[in-house]
Amino acid sequence: MLRRLNEKERFTPFLLLGPALLLMLLIVAYPLFQALRLSLFDASLLRPDRARFVGLTNYLNVLRDPLFLRSLLNSTIWVVGCVTLQFTIGMLGALLLNREFPGRGLVRGLSLIPWATSGVLVSLMWTWMLDGNYGVINDILVRLGLISQYRPWLALPISLGGVIAANVWQGAPFFAVMLLAAMQSVPQELYEAARIDGAGRFQQFRSVTIPLIMPTIVITTMLRIVWTANYMDLVFVMTGGGPGNASIILPVLSYITAYKKLKVGEATAMAVLQAILLIITLFVYLRLVNRKGEGGLSLYEV
Amino acid sequence: MRKSSVALTVVALVLFLLASTAAAKTRVTYWLWLDDPTDTTVQELVEEFNRLHPDIEVVTETIPLANYYDQLLMAISGGGGPDAARFKDWWLGAFYDADLLEDLSPYIANWPGADDVVPNLWNTGMIPGVDGIFMLPHQYITFYLYYRADWFAEAGLNPPRTFDEFLEAALKLTDPANNRYGFGLRGGAGGQDQWLAFMVAGGARIVDEAGNIVINSPKAVEVNQWYIDLYRKHQVAPPSAPTDAYAQVVGAFQAGNTAMMAHHVGSSVMMTDVFGDNVGVLPIPAADPENPATMGTMSGNVVFSTSDVKDAAFKFISWLSEHEAMDKWSKSRQGQLPVLQSVAEQDYYTQNEFFRVSLEGGNYAIVWPPLPGTGYVASYVWQNTMQRALLGEITSQQMLDEIAKALREGN
Amino acid sequence: MRYKRVKEFLLLWIPIALWLTFVLFPYVWMFLTSLKEPSELYTSPIQYLPKKPTFAGYKLLMETTKFPQFILNSLLVVGGTLLVTGTVSTAAAYCFSRFDFRGKGKLFGMFLVTQMFPSVLLVFSLFLIMRTLGLLNTRLALIVAHSTFALPFTTWLLTGFFNSIPKSLDEAATIDGATRWQTFWYVLAPLSAPGVVAALTYVFIYSWNEFIYALTFTSSIDMRTVPVGLNTFMGEYIIRWDLLTAGGVITAIPIVIFFMLVQRRLVQGLTAGAVKG
Fold it and tell me: Is the ipTM of this complex over 0.90?
């Protein structure tokens, strides 16, 4: 039961929340409003004061542009590929780290290092490993007999795959730790009960672990979908969207439109469209998940 | 306090303030890129200038060429940015359009060094139809071809003079099993210059005499297709060609993976260091030997209209284009062709094979026209469309149509 | 009997070895590369271990490049961000946890919705705002931007933590005569220490690694943070992988150190309270 607010304290919540709200208003809300406004103008980066009002033309041009649709497709491949692989590997990692063994603490600590690494550094490491002439990944793949010749991975039409590999490495530990945390709060007795009932390890996993960590799974995948969709550092540094448009994802296209094409209004329209699509995707995702029976999970109740 | 000591203190203070403001240096920020970041020549030149001109302090920032245009744009549009910068003729149109370049002709009129500049090079800093000079010429290059003289001798081949000979030699010298390719085609950043060299050598042009954009004419489409076929059809270029930029192309040539490489005199010192007599130089082969052509580009210096210290900035950039500084820069590890007659006459340049071929090329070199869209094409569109064409996603015609559109519209 | 034990041993330690290889291999490879001379780098077939390890690359970098300045800038930005985010989000989280008021749910939700927007959407408008405020090319601009964007997740984490501390403790303290501030400082704060560490680590990692805003708001080399400096460095030394990897190692050191210091608390913190759905 919370204390009732007395006269003296009527303003305390606002004082406490004030700074946060102020920052959000100034740095998020106001720029957001400005951006929405800018998306209705034809503006050049070099001379934003010479902008012309064009209404929804930017949006129409963007939606009609095959390049936008291509980047949308790439973004979908990017998000789906990264999140599913990160989740799978992360889950395996969590299961592993959940077991008892000496040095577990150290291994857990080391496991988070990829996630703590900057996107630029990840790009550097993986560009080198994927190098067409001296890349160690080429060497390993040849030794394993999977390819016959070195390939310049980031210069091929499937360059996005190379970037996905880098992102999976960087992001799997996030899932590993979050899922591990959830697993740790599953009461042991439930496993006992399942074992007594004759359930094998896999059965226990399916019927005890999964249902109980489902809220965490939903939340972390949701967060990860959002972050990945907006994450442009890796693609930007590793391929720049290339070769050609092979690996271009939405945020990178938006950046290029602003800083190379110099059309800031159009770039902002693209970003707005992306935000809208993301929000729709999340609502759909939550609906799907809720329908499966978990019920009652909304954005506000996390 | 007695009145006289107060007065004395005030006088002392005023004198002190005057002295400190008089001694305060004018700060000039100068941006540049370096092909070889370990070369100290520019730093030495800047220090010398600062020593000779105690009232000016030049401070430099080095930005890699691949990011140069973007960073410059971001800085200037942010209200900051340098006072002066090393600049490419590619970007002249876009910056002029946005009124960001200071017209230097009043300064040049009073600059004694102006007479020493090779007369027809002033054009590279001018905009057709507009009075004024917006870029001070400094170093320029024309493209030529390096080739492995030892490989050619071994295979009994003559250095190629025509497109057909070029292709024949490339095919003969390509051996993928041993990681050897005929030509280091550059599809990545900055590759538009050598592409243009081959395009004009093949008979295509960007604009005709009237100034109309003809980069997508049938002739150009044909030559472009020939260039694309080098990679797609004949496979005489390494598999990584679509994304290879300068470092990769040079690295491959130096590692003995390619037989020929297009570049310019800026890399000649490095090449002779690595190869000695095993590297030779040729003009870019021409489709029609009667009408050779190659591509030329000027790296000059500009002063931005947003600068507060234009006089001092011009003083610095004009000093760079005077005899001694010019000579020192041109003789450095990344030196290019000097724009001054007094410098170019020296034996060092006339006796050097690489400089000689470059200067000869100057007689028929074509430059990128200063259209509003040239900067955009040079920093993005060319690379994007070239890569898609090399990967087979678009045709030669489509690539050139996109470039024509970008040149015309500026975005 | 022995067979079973050997089997169990292998079933445990092989996966662990594989996992550690997955996690650490890129770093190990980067480090090995940084020790090689150029002649050992560009060989075919690839040499795995350096025959003549050398630190020449590191020496060259520390002497001629501005890496120390980049690290200093990043430390300053991160320090400022930790300070601002720490105080602001703690206050906000306390408010969300301990007070009830109209629109609380919606406000909280709004905080999270801001995570949806790609940085590219806001970067240009923010660029203009920073320009108007005269903050372009300053570390303060980054502190402000990073703090704001780290707020939602941090607030959410801390709110969860505060929520997991029973309000009865608050009441007990109040009955004993404690003011709200004292209750917070002596009761809530110590109990939520792991959560605070988790939140601050998140902020540290986010701010240290942030790239797009750092790239857009700074233009001079003296102001660059580590990611931006590394990116420019990659552009300059483009195929000198010996120098590039040495630079990579240099930039990785601060965060790895920090990380090893806090990792135990961090995992504890994430394990303890954040994921109570």
Answer: no
